[in-house]
Amino acid sequence: TCDTGDQQTTAAVHLKEAAATIVERLKDVATYEGEDAVFECRLSRETAQDAQWFLGDVPLQSNEMNEIRVQGTRHSLILRKVTLEDCGSITFKVGQHSSAA
Predict the structure, then answer these.
(1) Is there a contact between 51 and 45 (Cβ–Cβ < 8 Å)?
(2) Side-chain half-sphere of 32: how many Cα atoms within 13 Å?
(3) What is the DSSP letter of 96?
(4) Handedness of CA 76, 52, 68, 83 (dihedral sign)
């Protein structure tokens, strides 16, 4: 607000969150049946944007078989005690960006 005594004007500042990009992409993982498979990627910055993990086309959530972690800019997925049915493409998506392994 600018107030000169007999006149006043007001303006506002609006911010938009800049899109995060993937700076460290997923890497392929080879492991034995019954062991854990760990996938990690790193973003350009911490973000409130929705990040999502997929096995094939199926979105994953944290549960007893999948652990999803976010530590600052590092996002990780742990597939617990993998089976042959877990073979396939893992994809991480944030905003318009994605990485697959």
Answers:
(1) no
(2) 2
(3) T
(4) negative
Q: What are the structural domains, with CATH classification, of the chain? A: 25-100 (2.60.40.10)
Task: Report strand pairing: 51-55 vs 90-94.
Answer: antiparallel
- Average pLDDT along the chain, 101 residues, taken 10 residues at a time: 86 78 94 95 85 93 92 95 91 93 95
In this prediction, residue 48 carries a pLDDT of: 67
Note whether 50 and 92 are within 8 A (CB): no
Of 98, 48, 96, 56, nearest in space to 73 by CA: 48
Task: Tell if the pTM clears 0.70, that is, is over it.
Answer: yes
